């Protein structure tokens, strides 16, 4: 199986640089079938089901969930449903007697399926920068530290923020996906500090060895990642949350 870095390089060569799949096959020394597969998937797909898994507990409620997710696409971001809210609606409005996990798993799969057919915006793209900040908030009457994902568009000063209980890989990836959905597209490039979530290692020539999770994100959304110089606070503006 080819590494995810090869997928990212091939997809950028075809989708961003505008080269043909035939030329990609020649440049990368791969078969045209392999190149076509890499253009269909943003990362090695592994095992692919021949048919959708059965969900007897959800039964006829699957179309109800699909309808909710479809309506969320045109709803304001703050009004879109979480998996927990969908679960609560199924219980209250449809008498669903199953558990939360089966609903959460289906919502996750349905959302990832819709992201797989993402088409980049045609209007001129901009540039963004990302960082994590910290603040204190009250959750369930308990004051706690929150880790805030900050996605900023310097050209327009537009900003998207989302708070998480910890600065994890899941929060890092979800923050990107949420910001892309909020702004309605993906920027041409994104500037980062040298976050350990994104950078596994800084090599001697200054190049970054990306983490697998970050490489898969770049391969899927096809933006150009940029990094600030290590130890330099002035490379990009930093957001301070109080």
What does this structure look like?
The chain is an alpha/beta fold and 242 residues long. It folds into 3 domains: 4-40; 59-116, no CATH class; 127-227, Nucleotidyltransferase, domain 5 (2-Layer Sandwich). 39% of the residues lie in helices and 19% in strands. The chain has 8 helices and 7 strands. The chain has helices spanning 4-16, 21-28, 32-40, 62-72, 83-94, 100-116, 169-183, 212-221; strands at 127-139, 142-153, 158-164, 189-192, 199-202, 208-210, 224-227. The strands form 2 sheets. A 5-stranded mixed sheet has the order 3-2-1-4-7, with helices on one face. The protein has a two-stranded antiparallel ribbon with strand order 5-6. α1 (4-16) packs parallel to α8 (212-221) and α2 packs across α3 (32-40). The termini are far apart.
Helix and strand layout, with pairings?
Blueprint: H1 4-16, H2 21-28, H3 32-40, H4 62-72, H5 83-94, H6 100-116, E1 127-139, E2 142-153, E3 158-164, H7 169-183, E4 189-192, E5 199-202, E6 208-210, H8 212-221, E7 224-227
Subunit arrangement of the protein: single chain
Global geometry: globular
Structural class: alpha/beta
Please bin the fraction of helical residues: 25-40%
Low-confidence stretches: 116-124, 237-242
Could you give the order of strands across the largest sheet?
3-2-1-4-7
What's the pLDDT, averaged over the residues? 82
Cα separation of the termini: 47 Å
Q: What is the number of strand segments?
A: 7
Label this structure with key terms.
alpha/beta, Nucleotidyltransferase, domain 5, two-stranded antiparallel ribbon, 19% strand, 39% helix, 242 residues, disordered C terminus, 8 helices
